[in-house]
Write a sequence for this structure.
């Protein structure tokens, strides 16, 4: 075995690649923990925003059942109450967005500093088998993907979870019969999320590897540009770089296609089921078995639940991408 091979094996043993896993993103908590006060404020704003959103459904119910038959003064009170809820929702949403975005920017700055400090302490053998362009890609591109999750996706995902749970509970409270019909389609929604989610996760990891190869190829070429030009090697270098870029593009297209199918299938199943359920509810209203206010609030909560469930596949895909980036962090 040559010395180079020995160094490569040593480096491989010292720096094993992590298997991409969404649960691995929990390791990032140590970067968030110093900012517990901002995190707590974001959670409070998140809960208030979700509660305000769900209160709108009850306001719609009261308005449809009592507002139009209560005279002008009482009707104005219902609309004033609804506006107050909307103002609360807007203020809470502002607080949530600002605090979560601040945490995302602050944490990603800390992560980049920590990663760079770690790089400076690595064994020299690591740099013999790892190209500079790949290291830079991990330091910039991968941390940016993680920033998207910390500064946006986690907050929106938690908001959707609260909206889904609260909306589902209020669906059951509003009309157990119609809610039961909605719950029948849940297994058919979860199945494609699992199947396509695993595929997206695998393709996300492969895509990160291909992006790193593009960066390292460019870095190698530019570092030896004088030699390349002296031997008229520019065309070969161009073809090599173009091939790397096209490979990365093909992998990205496969990942995008899988995520698009996941989102489309979930939305089709969710809103298709709601269409059937609303037809059943409208029939009950016509037959006098249900008030218009109950159906109106049920429609609102159904939209909230459907929107939360429909976007679950998209956020899962974003978490898969971030998990792939986290697995490659040095």
């Amino acid at each position: 075995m040559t010395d180079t091979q020995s160094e490569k094996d040593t480096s491989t043993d010292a720096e094993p690649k992590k298997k991409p896993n969404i649960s691995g993103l929990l390791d990032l908590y140590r970067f968030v923990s110093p900012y517990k006060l901002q995190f707590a404020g974001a959670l409070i704003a998140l809960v208030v925003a979700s509660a305000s959103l769900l209160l709108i459904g009850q306001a719609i119910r009261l308005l449809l059942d009592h507002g139009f038959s209560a005279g002008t003064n009482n009707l104005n009170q219902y609309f004033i109450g609804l506006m107050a809820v909307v103002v609360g929702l807007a203020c809470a949403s502002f607080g949530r967005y600002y605090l979560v975005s601040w945490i995302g920017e602050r944490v990603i700055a800390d992560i980049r500093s920590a990663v760079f400090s770690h790089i400076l302490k690595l064994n020299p053998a690591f740099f013999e088998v790892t190209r500079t362009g790949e290291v830079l890609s991990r330091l910039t591109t991968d941390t940016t993907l993680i920033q998207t999750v910390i500064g946006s996706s986690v907050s929106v995902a938690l908001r959707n979870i609260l909206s889904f749970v609260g909306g589902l509970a209020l669906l059951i409270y509003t009309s157990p019969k119609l809610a039961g019909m909605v719950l029948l389609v849940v297994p058919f929604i979860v199945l494609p999320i699992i199947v396509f989610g695993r595929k997206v996760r695998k393709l996300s990891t492969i895509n990160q590897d291909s992006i790193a190869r593009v960066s390292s190829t460019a870095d190698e070429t530019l570092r030896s540009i004088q030699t390349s030009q002296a031997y008229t090697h520019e065309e070969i270098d161009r073809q090599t770089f173009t091939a790397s870029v096209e490979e990365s593009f093909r992998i990205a297209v496969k990942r995008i296609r899988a995520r698009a199918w996941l989102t489309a299938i979930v939305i089709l199943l969710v809103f298709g089921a709601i269409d059937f359920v609303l037809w059943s509810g409208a029939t009950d209203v016509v037959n006098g078995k249900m008030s218009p206010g109950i159906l109106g609030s049920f429609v609102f909560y159904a939209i909230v639940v459907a929107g939360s469930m429909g976007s679950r596949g998209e956020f899962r895909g974003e978490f898969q991408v971030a998990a792939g980036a986290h697995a490659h962090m040095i």
